[in-house]
Specification:
There is one protein chain. The chain is α/β, with parallel strands linked by helices and 430 residues long. The strands form two sheets. A ten-stranded mixed beta sheet has the order 9-8-7-6-5-4-1-10-11-12. The protein has a two-stranded parallel ribbon with strand order 2-3. The protein contains 17 helices and twelve strands. It has a single domain, classed as Aldolase class I (TIM Barrel). α9 links the parallel β7 and β8.
Length: 430
């Protein structure tokens, strides 16, 4: 992707994009020896995540049937969808990819937020189930708890035995929301990237830390005291997510402690995914200086609580060791406006080129089976991955697919892939 193809992205931002500030152009070419090099981590005492959710890896080995179909060149259904049901948000987290994409809401582009109606949500869920999708995470580019149809929507997912989850800023919960969520979701993750009011304001740009902590208390009460269980008869996993930026580097250990004190199941610390022009300012070099801090944070883990450092993404400088993206065959995205894309990166860049259809107009099951869907999937392979989002949703899946493609007999290699003995949670969320 050259500079001219970034025009759609630039329209949503104040400053112009010049050749000098396209950070992506200065990166080593994806798949090159330089982009694949991680030898610098050895002398840093870099760690490795081995958490029960495989957040720093993927779960493709539990879905070898679909991987084998991909190896054979079949037109496969995605395993997972990242889906939005809102186009607006009432926070303006400074690291949010949705802000430069022009999502509606606080300190963002004007206009009324669009909420996906319940009938469309149900149509997508049932269609996804029909074609073989195994999980849907309600994430998207905005805040899905603003949509009142979230709650009957997730109850419907339970009725049809579809694994769903929710990521949220956690500041909107009311008592009446807790039962439908915890009786339907496999996991719920709250993005809280600072542990003190001052730092929270700097990162999330509203003084809502108390609201988030109150929402957490409601969830923990619903899980532990009220005993809500999802359709599998399990308690919903509740976690905190910290996106590490240049504004909260001093909050790693405080966040680890806060998560333990609040009673959540985990706190995950992850790299900030950045835009091609580096607009979000991900501090890749600073990450490399924090190995001891990350290890100190991990020490807050105990039998009931885990601090998960996503060492893989924090240590890769935003580079990719593969030159082509095949991860969108397994994980796709639906914007809050109903448009289906290979991934969320294209919500505001080259929309016409990469949109596969809109679920308001065409049933999701028909979109996945359409020629247009597969034309776009093929077109993704022509993209220079330096100009994609760094540390994207498909990154870990792409690492495994790249390894498979490098084998002399990929099908045999997949067949020999062994499922780890250690029990893993949420296997359908790849």
């Amino acid at each position: 992707m050259n500079k001219d193809k970034l025009d759609d992205f630039v329209k949503h931002n104040e400053e112009s994009l010049s050749g000098d500030n396209i950070v992506a152009a200065k990166r080593p070419r994806s798949g090159s020896i330089e982009a694949s090099d991680r030898s610098y981590l050895d002398e840093l005492g870099w760690g490795k995540s081995e958490d029960e959710y495989r957040m720093d890896a993927n779960k493709l080995v539990w879905h070898k049937d679909r991987v084998e179909e991909w190896v054979e060149g079949e037109r496969i259904a995605p395993l997972h969808i990242d889906m939005g049901i809102s186009t607006g948000c009432n926070l303006a987290c400074h690291f949010c990819y949705g802000v430069p994409q022009g999502r509606q809401g606080f300190q963002a582009r004007g206009g009324r937020s669009q909420f996906m109606p319940l009938d469309v949500i149900k149509q997508v869920f049932s269609g996804a189930k029909e074609v073989g999708v195994r999980s849907i995470a309600l994430v998207g580019e905005a805040e899905n708890t603003l949509n009142p149809d979230l709650y009957p929507g997730v109850k419907y997912a339970r009725e049809i035995d579809l694994d769903v989850s929710l990521a949220t800023h956690g500041a909107n919960f009311k008592e009446e929301n807790i039962e439908p969520l915890l009786s339907s979701l496999q996991w719920l993750r709250i993005n809280i990237s600072a542990a003190t009011p001052e730092s929270y304001n700097a990162v999330h740009q509203r003084p809502w830390l108390d609201r988030v902590l109150y929402g957490t208390e409601l969830l923990i009460k619903g899980k532990n005291e009220d005993g809500y269980r999802n359709g599998k008869g399990l308690s919903t996993t509740i976690g905190y997510q910290m996106v590490l930026t240049d504004r909260n580097l001093d909050q790693v250990v405080p966040m680890a402690k806060l998560g333990r004190d609040m009673g959540v199941d985990y706190t995950v610390i992850k790299a900030c995914s950045d835009t091609p022009d580096g607009r979000l300012g991900t501090p890749h070099d600073e990450y490399l200086s924090l190995a001891d801090v990350f290890k100190e944070a991990e020490e807050y883990s105990n039998d009931d609580y885990k601090v998960i450092v996503r060492w893989n993404k924090l240590g890769n400088k935003g580079n990719k060791e593969y030159s082509s993206c095949h991860g969108t065959r397994f994980i796709i995205a639906i914007s809050g406006d109903g448009t289906v894309f290979p991934c969320g990166h294209w919500f505001a860049i080259e929309r016409e080129r990469f949109q596969m259809g809109n679920v308001y107009e065409i049933p999701f099951s028909e979109i996945v089976r359409s020629d247009r869907y597969w034309e776009v999937q093929e077109d993704i392979h022509t993209v220079d991955l330096r100009y994609c989002e760094t540390n994207c949703r498909q990154h870990a899946v792409n690492q495994t697919l790249h390894e498979i493609q490098g084998q002399s007999d990929p099908k045999q290699f997949v067949g020999c892939m062994k499922v780890p003995e250690k029990e893993i949670q949420h296997v359908n969320f790849v």
